[in-house]
Amino acid sequence: MKRFKPLLFSLVVVLILAIWLWPRPSQTSWRLAQEVAPLPLLSQLMQDNLSPTFPVDPGQMQIWKVQVAGQRQPLYLVDSRVKNSETQPLCGAIGCAFFGYTPKDTGFQRVLATYLNPHVPPGRDLIEPTAAVENGLPQLVVNQLGAEGFQQYTLGFNGEVYEIQQIDTLARL
Fold this sequence. Notes:
Layout: H1 4-21, E1 31-32, H2 33-36, H3 39-49, E2 62-66, E3 75-79, E4 91-92, E5 95-104, E6 107-116, E7 127-134, E8 137-146, E9 149-157, E10 162-171
Antiparallel strand pairs: 1-2, 2-3, 3-5, 4-5, 5-6, 7-8, 8-9, 9-10
């Protein structure tokens, strides 16, 4: 039994190191767009999603620059809700607009455009990048509360845009 103790100790150390070093998605880090977004991204965001009749400053939206191990290029997730604004022009009855952009050539390409209900249960993030990478971008898990209950949507990148791959209902309301 004594000769197995060093082997067991070594296995435990290797297991702890493997768990600690295992690639994890970046932690939730929504920041003010004007602080982190490249100017060409803000220009593309305005061109793709905003009308000149809406006086919206995209620099006041929130952006999360997602980068996980094995990902080819950053994914910029955009929460269209404007900080410190009484009106939210990109929000409506079904939720608020969320976008995803990746660098392409000298500009940016929109790879995600959806409306999400931003209200989720405590302890849950609205969008959770995973360590699984498809076609160069991470899978995303989107948490939503709706008429069906609490649901998780798994989105995968098909090479052009994100699409729903799986819907799991975790709790009925």
